[in-house]
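Board work, copied verbatim: Cell division protein DivIB
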Amino acid sequence: MADKTVVDMQDKLPQLKEQRKQRSRRRFIVYVSIFLILIAVMVYLQSGFSNVKSIEVTGAETMGDSEVIALSELNHEVNIWSLNKEDRTERIESHDAVTDASISRGWFNKVIIHIEEYKVIASVSQNEGKPLPVLENGKLYDSAEVKIGSVPLLRDFEDAALIEETAMELGKMSESLRGRISEVIYNPDESNPDRVTVLMNDGWTVSSTIRAFAERMEPYPTIVQQLEPDQEGIIHMRLNPYFESFREEEDITVE
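↓ predict structure ↓
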């Protein structure tokens, strides 16, 4: 019985040796493969193959794509895996027209910049040159394009704080109501330092104030429905709105 066991072991020894060799070869192949992959990754990261190939900007309506990219300081020499997203988004968000920005990677070394903007809410007239766009936050943005008549025109506004306050009030209005305003003219007097005259696209003239402008203009659509189209006068949009006729007759209180 003992002799048979010795013979069996002798028969199996070549098989065991072959199995050990196969395991060693597999380990060697795995190690070499890992080494080659690491070399390939290092070459990829150090070469131009890992640089940004294309940049896409989404959400930009007021700003131009090239302006957003310039703010991000991204170019084709930047490595796709070392974008420093936080620093670049902060640079974009520092612009007056931007409320939020994000950067993400896409396929084939593509970078996507998404921004959210303040809308152009008005334009302000200048002594010379075309009107400057005014953003929702009250900041002037001279690089934006604005069509005459597409937003209310602010006239005789020289104080930046008043422009900002008026822009904020316009931003509180519904788009339909804001779209009915043609011009907002700043014409204060001793009793009303924030008085404005508002020219409407439907032909009416409104007297109101910058303070609580949005709230006071809210009932305007209902009020004009109560007036005859051929009446001439001024609609006073205050705490108690009323219509001041240019004819020699009593003023009309409207509700």
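The chain has a mean pLDDT of 85.
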